[in-house]
């Protein structure tokens, strides 16, 4: 059985800082000046972090109990697919808006990677 990291580890300290930051955002969420798109993005990020934290917790529990943590990789992959789907839908929406200026290089890179991804997906579905 592996030793547990101490509460003073850099990872633990970083997570404690993240917890404090999220708790501090509570007051901001009660503001009347919320941009719906920013609020949606905030919720999506929190949901992704929650899902990854759950998968990490499952992985730690599997390692401690001597079980195979391999299933956690599948959970993380499923979360990445869900997040990618949501991001793709938001990008589709952004592309319809004339007031958004896109950098051609970034669009080219996105196009290239999604084209390759589409080839790989085709072989899996």
Tell me what you see in this structure.
The protein contains four helices and no strands. The chain is mainly alpha-helical and 125 residues long. It has one domain (24-124). Helix 2 runs antiparallel to helix 3 (70-95). It is flat and about 50 Å long.
Protein traits:
mainly alpha; 4 helices; flat; 78% helix; 125 residues
Instruction: Give the amount of beta strand, in percent.
Output: under 5%
Structural class: mainly alpha
Order of helices and strands: HHHH
Percent of residues in helices = over 70%
Write a concise synopsis of the structure shown.
By secondary structure, this protein is mainly α. The protein is built from 4 helices and no strands.
How are the secondary structure elements laid out?
Layout: H1 10-29, H2 36-65, H3 70-95, H4 104-124
Helix pairs in contact: 2-3
